[in-house]
């Protein structure tokens, strides 16, 4: 950003080229905290203004940290492969709002056809496994040798 | 037979091991062998319990309070630092859950208890209407014997004292412009010091406890405690279950310590509300860990005769001023700042006072410890009363402990509207009356 000095013009950014990705927190966060992955160049003030001006979300506090991407994996040429670094922002919402990351893969209701087909498939698999097993009196010992 | 048996015990274990033996299990007179107890050095839960038991006994048997404090705060591990003056959002809710405190809005109804010693405020000619319980209690109270006689206070004199201090600091005295972020130290700080010292000196005649009190300027108050459990995340101690350690290091602006304790406000086992339960880790507040000296301190060392607390005065720093919060769209956090400051500071002070008397989380308090605090930013005053009913906040001791600590608090009210042209406009007598009542609070015997 251009350096600001007293009396200079206010920096205004229209149509910023930043993107924010809301992610599910790995560890449980308080109810008013939303976790984002943001561009490395964004600052806390940027994030606050971005959410307030573009999405009308009241923001009370922002905390950021940079997650270092590991450099341990090796490719077929034994060169180190770096996972990219990214910045994580924890945004606390204002005015008592709360946010819970939604469940993106809910259990779907199965209709009768699929359920009966699944049952039939399970029963068939069980019968096949039973047939593969040898004599139970041999106690799990294979029957390709012996009498 | 007795001699070789004793030698066998001493030779087998280390010296403290044998001392633990005699402390933990009483030896039956007719048994030939020492009692069978869990090992003290094995890597097992029974051994850990035995070591903990041994530590508790060591602290119980400590000869002096200094030794008890030294043993209690001996082991240094990373702990969460609680700052009473914090910018964290909804910090007062988190602090209440860490200290098992119930917050009751409004001050405790002390009219009945203090009716005999209640100050009857004599209004000067230009003053506003007197407080509600005043006139009703005045007539019968005036006829009481001197021990419980109503005390007549000159409201005009008190108001003039307050206005003098305010004008001296903000109008008459020529000061340089305050440096950046030093506005609070420029005017409100000296005004508060001046106000409190003059009011205390004036009210010494009415309250003999104040005559024997000590006024500390910028004292230090520290307290260290355990609450809850967590699993160590990384390090050489990874995977072990540890208590969550907290430390408060507070620097109130002023503090009044007295030799006699303030009377209890409600009985020890009262239940006035619910303690918030927060299942998240304290680091989400945000709260940070650091390892340094575990200190328990009230403002003076143990041998000081003024070992009980009376009132603390806190000054809100520049970072948490009203207009800054308003500019950042955080109006609802203004009261949170005052409440968090009151709860945390008073908990640390009362708990440290209790530790100075020999109580700790295994030896819970037998009488409630009461202290008061005034949190201000120079213009707005908020009053807090705290009663410490329990110190037992660790995982084992909190399970069967129904007692809760209680904090009463008001919202912040302005003392005056504006100071201009050598006069104070819009002076609020109610706030001054609250302050005076706080300073006049004393045990019933006096």
TrEMBL record, chain A:
Biased composition annotated in UniProt, kind: Basic and acidic residues: 106-140
Protein name: Large ribosomal subunit protein uL23m
Cleaved signal peptide residues: none
Keyword Ribosomal protein found: yes
Chief localization: mitochondrion
GO molecular function, one term: structural constituent of ribosome
Key word Glycosyltransferase present: no
Compartment(s) of residence: Mitochondrion
Transmembrane segments: none
Domain of life of the source: Eukaryota
GO cellular component terms, A-Z: mitochondrial large ribosomal subunit
Pfam families, alphabetized: Ribosomal_L23
Alphabetically ordered keywords of this record: Mitochondrion, Ribonucleoprotein, Ribosomal protein
Span list, region Disordered: 102-147
Annotated coiled-coil segments of the chain: none
GO biological process: mitochondrial translation
Similarity-based family: Belongs to the universal ribosomal protein uL23 family.
Automatic annotation (TrEMBL), chain B:
An annotated Gene Ontology molecular function: structural constituent of ribosome
Superkingdom of this protein's organism: Eukaryota
UniProt GO BP: translation
One Gene Ontology CC term in the entry: mitochondrial large ribosomal subunit
Keyword annotations: Mitochondrion, Ribonucleoprotein, Ribosomal protein
Subcellular location: Mitochondrion
Name of protein: RT30 protein
Organism whose genome encodes this protein: Geococcyx californianus
